[in-house]
Design a protein that fits this description.
Blueprint lengths: L3 E11 L4 E6 L13 E5 L2 E5 L1 E6 L7 E5 L5 H5 L5 E5 L13 H4 L3 E4 L4 E10 L4 E6 L9 E5 L6 E5 L4 E4 L6
Parallel strand pairs: 8-13
Antiparallel strand pairs: 1-2, 1-7, 2-6, 3-4, 3-7, 5-6, 8-9, 9-10, 10-11, 12-13
Length: 175
C-alpha cells in the first residue's frame, strides 16, 4: 500500500544554478520544506531526493524555490520539472480525530443527509474563506454534475468516515 502523501510539485527551473520553483499544497506554503525526505515522481517512478535548501523567493512572495542535492545547473534541474513531491505519511505530524490530509479525502463518496449520492471527491481547493470539495457526479450518483461544496465541519460537513469511504453533507442536491 502506498503511504506517500503529495505535498506539491516542481513547476519549472529557476535561474542557472540548478534551483527549481515549487508549488506547495501545505499550509503555510513554506511548510513543504519541513518534511523530509522528499520523494519525486519521474517517469512514473518514485525517487528520493535530498533537499539542500528551500525558501520563499522574497519575504512575502508566494513563489518558493528549492535546491536539490546533485542539481548544479539548469539542464539538470529541468529533469525535475512537472515532478510531484511527496513524503511518506510516517514523516508527517499525527492528526487529531477530526483532521484529515486532503489526499485521504480524494475519492470518498459524498452523500447528503437524506441519502442522495452526489458523487466522489475529485480534488480540493483553497479559497479565501474556506477549503472546498470538488465533487464529481458518477454513474451511481443523482447526476453527473460537478459540485463545489464548502468544507465547513458542523455546518455543511456532518461526518467524515475514511474507513467507510463516505462524507455526509448537509447540502441541497439541486446546487
Amino acid at each position: 500500500m502506498d503511504t506517500r502523501v503529495l505535498l506539491g510539485r516542481i513547476t519549472s527551473v529557476y535561474g542557472v544554478q540548478g534551483w527549481v520553483k515549487v508549488h506547495s499544497s501545505t499550509e503555510p506554503i513554506d511548510n513543504i520544506f519541513n518534511y523530509r525526505p522528499w520523494q519525486v515522481r519521474l517517469a512514473d517512478r518514485w525517487h528520493t531526493v535530498e533537499l539542500q535548501h528551500g525558501k520563499r523567493h522574497a519575504k512575502h512572495s508566494k513563489i518558493l524555490i528549492a535546491k536539490l542535492a546533485g542539481c548544479y545547473d539548469r539542464d539538470k534541474a529541468r529533469q525535475y520539472c512537472g515532478a510531484d513531491i511527496a513524503v511518506d505519511q510516517s514523516h508527517l505530524p499525527i492528526l487529531g480525530p477530526d483532521d484529515y490530509y486532503w489526499q485521504q479525502l480524494i475519492g470518498l463518496a459524498v452523500k447528503t443527509t437524506s441519502g442522495i449520492q452526489l458523487g466522489d471527491v475529485d480534488y480540493l481547493m483553497t479559497t479565501g474563506a474556506n477549503d472546498v470539495l470538488v465533487v464529481q457526479g458518477q454513474a451511481d450518483s443523482i447526476d453527473c454534475k460537478q459540485r463545489l461544496i464548502p468544507w465547513l465541519p458542523g455546518k455543511v460537513i456532518i461526518s467524515t468516515d475514511i474507513t467507510a469511504g463516505v462524507i455526509l453533507v448537509n447540502w441541497d442536491s439541486e446546487f
